[in-house]
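Escalated from tier 1: N-acetyl-L-glutamyl 5-phosphate holo job.
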Amino acid sequence: MLKQNEAPESAETRVRILSEALPYIQKFAGRTIVVKYGGAAMKDSSLKAKVIRDVVFMACVGLRPILVHGGGPEINSWLDKLGIEPQFKNGLRVTDAATMDVVEMVLVGRVNKEIVSLINQAGGAAIGLCGKDGGLIGARPADEEGVGFVGEVTRVNPQILESLVQAGYIPVVSSVAADETGQAYNINADTVAGEIAAALNAEKLILLTDTAGILEDYKDPSTLIPRMDIQEARQLMDQGVVSGGMIPKVNCCVRSLAQGVKAAHIIDGRQPHSLLLEVFTDGGIGSMIVASEFTF
Ligand SMILES: Nc1ncnc2c1ncn2[C@@H]1O[C@H](COP(=O)(O)OP(=O)(O)O)[C@@H](O)[C@H]1O
Ligand SMILES: CC(=O)N[C@@H](CCC(=O)OP(=O)(O)O)C(=O)O
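Tier 2 regenerated the structure:
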């Protein structure tokens, strides 16, 4: 319904927007799109509903979305309720045994199941998994010292995800995995999304976050860098333009592109329907990273 003072769009505009989507629907039909939905972009429930609808839309028009979710803010709030002070080192949560239990309960038990339920309510068919299910992800301790049970991905078993998407399901993946002894590890969700995109040779890796994309000055959205190749992305990290939580994002984009993913995007999860804008419109949105400038 139109709000007061909102101009009605002409029939011509609506038809143009709809028909602009057709070449993208044709191009990406049957292709895997890995979407990482970050905790920072999950806080608003009406925005969350739009992200869910966009993912269901993609699946309905023949794309193969896989959703990897974070949930850092929700883990913090549960740690707070339990009187445990969250601690971070270089953007990674310091994860002792008690924190690991909370991370697993919150990500696998709450956030994952909530997203699965919302997708199902929106008419999709979602299946929730963590790295342990079907041996989807193997883990080892991260190289960073003093972070406890923070893990790195040792391998991804793409078959389980391929079987699910083939059967019409939308996999929803939490970033908890185990080593061969069964010890659970807490893995950064961006890293998991990048490794899954690489293992499935995805068309796109899309990271939804709480900024317009990669910015020259991270406080100024008008400094958005719309496109870059791997080399330029590495330079931005070396120069310190990319810092904090943006470092694991750019790193996982670069790693996935080097392994064959066609394009990686960092987009604003706070903007309503940013996923649809990125995938189905000529202009796109946010920052796109490609393997080399020749692939633009
Ligand atoms: N060059 C940059 N451009 C945009 N954001 C940046 C940049 N450098 C650092 N950042 C920070 O990275 C944050 C996104 O990472 P993070 O908070 O971990 O998000 P998420 O919870 O979605 O994974 C931004 O909110 C911003 O503060
Ligand atoms: C090792 C590590 O830091 N793991 C993250 C996993 C969740 C995550 O990545 O959530 P966001 O995407 O919302 O930041 C954590 O414990 O917060």
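The domain at 28-83+110-129+156-175+197-295 is CATH 3.40.1160.10 (Carbamate kinase).
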